Amino acid sequence: MTTVEKDPVTGRQTTGHEWDGIRELNTPLPRWWILVFWVCVLWSAGMWLLMPSWPLRNSFTVGLLGYSSRAALEQDLATQAVERALWRERLVSLPAEAVEADPELLTYARAGGRIAFEENCAPCHGVGGVGAFGYPTLADDEWLWGGTLAEIEQTIKFGARSGNPQGHVSEMPRFGADGILTPDQIEQVAHYVLTLADRAPKPDLPGATLFAENCAVCHGESGEGNSMVGAPPLNNQIWLYASKLTNQSPEVRAAEIQATVIRQVTRPRHGAMPAWSERLDPGTIRMLAVYVHTLGGGR
Amino acid sequence: MSGTPLYAKSETIHPRSVKGRFRRWKFALLALLLSWWHLAPFLRWDRGAGAPDQAILIDMTGRRAYFFALEIWPQEIYYLTGILVVSAIALFLISALYGRVWCGFLCWQTIYTDLFVQVERLVIGDRARRITFDRAPWSPGKLARKAAVHLIWLILAAACGVSFTLYFGNAPTMLPALLTGREEAAVYGAVAVVGGLCYLLAGFAREQVCLYMCPYSRFQAAMFDEHSLIVGYEPWRGEPRGYWRRGQSFEGRGHCLDCRMCVAVCPTGIDIRDGSQLGCIGCGLCIDACDAMMDRAGLPRGLVAWDSIASQAARAAGAPARHRLVRPRTLVYGAILTVSVGLIGWSLSARTTTELTVLHERALLYVRLSDGSIRNGYVLKVQNMVRRDRWFDLSVQGLDHPRLSVIGGGPPLKVASDSVGSFTVFVTANAANATGRRLPLTFLLRDQADGREIRTDSLFVGPDR
Fold it and tell me: What is the ipTM of this complex?
């Protein structure tokens, strides 16, 4: 039942629809609205002509202005690369120490280094150089291969056991697996190493002699380590192959460290790090070196 | 409610020009406020070398707002909140005391609508001329006048937009650059938006803004009571209204001559004799119009008057008018206003020129060093809100024998003038002293020049025990 009738109150026509006695007035759209609508239609027609719009079978209509968001992005990136190149030039042309001495360059290198670190290094070393089981903490002051700015940069460039001819290489003998030491002797050495770690070495322990004969050549008489051969210091509580848990009781912790040392002496693990000069440009490596050096433990 | 139209078709209102004290006030305020709006960006204020010398400036790229001696940093945006609160309360108070003073005399919409109507009056003529002009068929003459009106409107609107942008840049250099097309597209965009809104709102929307768009006109009735001053018609004196010829007696009839002058001059086109209503913006022009007619009829002024409902009622009853400014409502508004102004003033006077923010390193809560000591990392942000370089001594409290080191060297920490210095600071404590998971730690920053100290609390994290 669609009977269009005149509404007595407003004098307008109704649409003829009725819902439970409620009828709808036929109110035309305002003229300004119609005008805006047609202007928008014209506008979109103009945009079709000027801008990329209609998809074709294998391409699209390019538009008279020839705009492409991809080209615009590429141009932005190129502009950015030119600006960055100026900074990289300064970073690389100066000695690394001079970069750290210049507040502006230091800020730039640490900011850029942080991004590069999170993209490339954090998967192993953790965000902020927090480290993980088997991956050294970079924020502390123990360094396998040296903690000066130059040494850090060298390690980043060529890696460790990376296959790069300039990379760090060293191998700890497999004292247990190759029968150099008996399991009993290894346990004695581990016992002595624990006293070294507590900085209270007991020279009368049977392990002391074994340590002096077998380990001290690389790890030092008092376990101070030797970064020339990547031998970590043993006279502290920083352990590469122990858990990073901190809430263990002293007894549990001591047992874990002892097990770690026994495991490592019997059949050593050797970490590897890629040579990043094969993947990153010198500017990025310089920024990474500065960033890692200023994480707090740099020498 | 039968007979009330469901739809109100908007009809162009052509207010008649009128002379009188309210009209003079409105012209004076229009001139004063528009001059201030257009000239204020050119006021200078010396802040020393390297700082902008514009008295009122919102520097978006530099992230500063300047208001004479005051320089506001982005994080102090709460001052803007304070200003808005004070403005709102002041509006409440003024509404409770004197009615819609803001709407009638001070509001942008009122002032620009008034200005645009004056343009129409000068180009086309007064109310009667404009009504016939509107109805007349199109002719070259009509087209020319219409074009002239819109051209002047557009110039005024563009000037409004231009002045708006001048608050965001150095006005004396920005204005010539803007007029000669050397400014950025964004500036012209701002001129187009602000100017376009001015043109639309003052040229076309006019009283519709007050009736349908403005929230203030809706809720201010809540601020009124019977002692608030409003523009009102006194029916006890005016009714029964009727046409009057010179020499006729007013015996047995009201004083309203039914000349409809009050309706003709009204910028929102209402009839004040219907009583206080939403459409009345309280501009008082109907008072001017009615007073002129009362003078001509030899009757006392004030048939339409700016008065309170209470005194109208008192007069109707023959009692002396009683108008009270001091009432519980105005006392409460006044007290809130005093408190908020006092709070802003207090916070401005106690405003520090240095701020120290300490962010504890999160990626690594603490580091155990090879000698067993525990190290925590922090990023310190030192805001130097003064226009000179400053050096600060840094120390920490809460730990025994802490060792401090700053990446890049220091302390002392140097913070350049009017900037934020960011420093990576390491605090190291012996294992024996890092006796808990979280120890309170306080950073102390001491200005080397005047010895003033700033403290910020943080914490020192150690291993579980």
Answer: 0.78
